[in-house]
Amino acid sequence: SYVALTCAFVLSGCASNGQEKTDDVTRWTMTHISDESHPWHETSEVFAELVEEKTDGEVVIDIYPNSQLGDEVDSINSIKYGATDVTITGETLEVWTPNAILMATPYAFEDQEHKQKIIEGEIGQEIEQDIIDDVGLTPLFYMDRSPRNLTSNIPISHPDDLNGFNIRVPNVPLFLDAWEEAGANPQVIGLDETFTGLQQGMIDGQENPNDLTESNGFYEVQEYVNLTEHVPSWIYVVVGNEQLEALPKDQREQVLEAAEEAENYAQDLMEEQAEEVDERLKEAGVTFNEVDQNAFREAMLPAIQDNLEEEPYELYLQIIEE
Ligand code: 2Q2
């Protein structure tokens, strides 16, 4: 009967929010959009190892890279529905919580030190709290990101070169507006469909940190990395609030300890890898093209004023005045 079936389901330890509990081991499903060669995957594996070690095997994380279980928005929704538990996400959360856009507002940070100060200061904490309150996801740790650069098959040195240029952008409304203001024709395509779009000539270019340009193989179908460095950003590894709450207090603390160590690991890895990525892209035949960054900054500025809601815009003004 239904009652017997329900009792069996609960007794078998299948928690209501999808995370599996078999003989007292909690298994979390983690998804992300980069492939196994990318620092995000390496950091995810280190985090999973640290969690298993610190919880004495009572919390295990199974990692699914390469958008295997869906794109970034699918991953966020599936955690909220309890089908999966952990993912890597950032400005895409703007759809649920406006302040997340501050993670990817064009030319907002003067340098690495300025960005780090914001991430680890009050504004960074506010963004993390908003993600918890508005999206139901808890940021466990952040990973710094290299700045996003525009890739293409013709050199793009100034916004004037963008006339008729079809550019792929992720599902971030501000990016659509910013590239439209700069003179390009932006369209939202999932990261996992971008290579095909470039290969078939549906799009002329895309923009990403060089590490994702490398790990997605975009250098095979793009000749130039144009050093726009238009978005210096960072990204969070997040877990569902319910999934974290479902753990006993000691395991929760052990997971947060593992997260802190994984954050330091990610920072070291990023600093170590950034130069190596650029060298490998040049060896693969990519031309690094200097651009007029101020011209791109000026061109994108109106999109920030038009696109940011009141609170994120106030915080943006605080960031650029720091
Ligand atoms: O180009 C991409 O799809 C990624 O760099 C995403 O922009 C990035 O992961 C953000 O969506 C984070 O929310």
TrEMBL record:
Question: Does this UniProt record's set of keywords contain Signal?
Answer: yes
Single Gene Ontology BP annotation: transmembrane transport
Q: Which GO terms describe its cellular component?
A: outer membrane-bounded periplasmic space
From which residue to which does any coiled coil extend? 252-279
Q: Which InterPro entries match?
A: DctP_fam (IPR018389), TRAP_DctP (IPR004682), TRAP_DctP_sf (IPR038404)
- Localisation per UniProt entry: Cell envelope
Q: What is its main location?
A: other
Which keywords does UniProt give here?
Answer: Coiled coil, Receptor, Signal, Transport
Write the signal peptide boundaries.
Answer: 1-15
Instruction: Cite the Pfam families for this sequence.
Output: DctP
Q: Which family does it belong to?
A: Belongs to the bacterial solute-binding protein 7 family.
Name-wise, this protein is: Tripartite ATP-independent transporter DctP family solute receptor
Q: What is the lineage of its organism?
A: Bacteria, Bacillati, Bacillota, Bacilli, Bacillales
